[in-house]
Write a structure and sequence with these properties.
The chain has 272 residues and is of the alpha/beta class. 30% of the residues lie in helices and 16% in strands. The N and C termini lie far apart (47 Å).
């Protein structure tokens, strides 16, 4: 997979040289290229922004350097059959989730455009959307100083799904939010050696060697954690993904099953 990032702060992307992504780059599984947007400016101040039309606070990133940068990056592999997916980090975009990470991990080439200030002149996005797959993506309902942090988040989430990046190919199968994993429940708690630490032991079931009981315990813990931290996932869970014991556990956790089979917090009003 090839990943290009165009930014005015290349140094912000240094974490891409460490951990799993760094190792994947070193062994050739990922081809990550970071470009300084200011290379495509033509004034002595390397200006990349200007005041917004219509007035208002802040500055807007100019279309000229972005257009020149993206043209050159895209042309650098014009002879290849694949065209890139252009990913625009923005709080007004589609929420980034595991489903999207899986989809993007199957694409051979991603180009990220982390912006600063009030964002990139809209004409840039509209221009490239005419001939590229452009995705405006948000990592959450909050505003950051720039798009570099979201790029780090997305690249790590995507890269670990690329075959060969994780040492154990099965490692991501039971991740929270993985497709089909635990009916989209959060993962439960995990433990390792030593068997006792500061007076705290390990749940007996994990030491039992009984794989069926261990699987059931993990499922119940996942249900409990999801109920406490992400009740919205329980409410939208497909009833067909829940077995009899799941339903009993949810009842114990304070959920009631409606006529349509879905679960709601006990006492909550359900609109018909």
């Amino acid at each position: 997979m090839r990943i290009d990032v165009v930014t005015i702060f290349p140094e912000y992307l240094e974490p891409l040289n460490v951990s799993l992504v760094g190792k994947a780059r070193a062994c050739g599984l990922l081809d990550v290229r970071v470009h300084d947007l200011r290379r495509w400016t033509h004034d002595k101040h390397h200006t990349v922004d200007d005041t917004p039309y219509g007035g208002g606070p802040g500055m807007v990133m100019k279309p000229e350097p972005w257009g020149e940068a993206l043209d050159e990056v895209i042309a650098s592999a014009a002879a290849e059959a694949a065209s890139p997916v252009l990913i625009v980090p923005t709080p007004s975009g589609r929420p980034f989730d595991q489903e999207l990470a899986v989809e993007l991990s199957a694409r051979p080439w991603l180009v990220f455009t982390p912006a600063r200030y009030e964002g990139i002149d809209r004409r840039v996005i509209d221009e490239y959307a005419e001939h590229l797959d452009v995705r405006e993506v948000s990592i959450g309902d909050y505003v950051l100083a720039g798009g570099e942090a979201p790029v780090l988040v997305m690249v790590e989430a995507i890269a670990r799904l690329v075959p060969g990046v994780l040492g154990n190919a099965e490692s991501h199968r039971d991740d929270s939010f993985a497709a089909g994993a635990m009916a989209d429940l959060l993962e439960g708690p995990v433990y390792t050696k030593p068997p006792e630490w500061r007076g705290r032991g390990i749940p007996d079931v994990l030491l039992s060697g009984h794989h069926g009981r261990i699987a059931r315990w993990r499922r119940d813990q996942a249900l409990a954690r999801t109920s406490a931290n992400r009740p919205d996932l329980i409410a939208r869970c497909d009833p067909a993904a829940l077995d009899k014991k799941d339903r009993a556990t949810l009842t114990e956790l304070g959920w009631s099953q409606g006529e349509d089979g879905r679960f709601w917090p006990t006492g909550a009003h359900v609109e018909e």
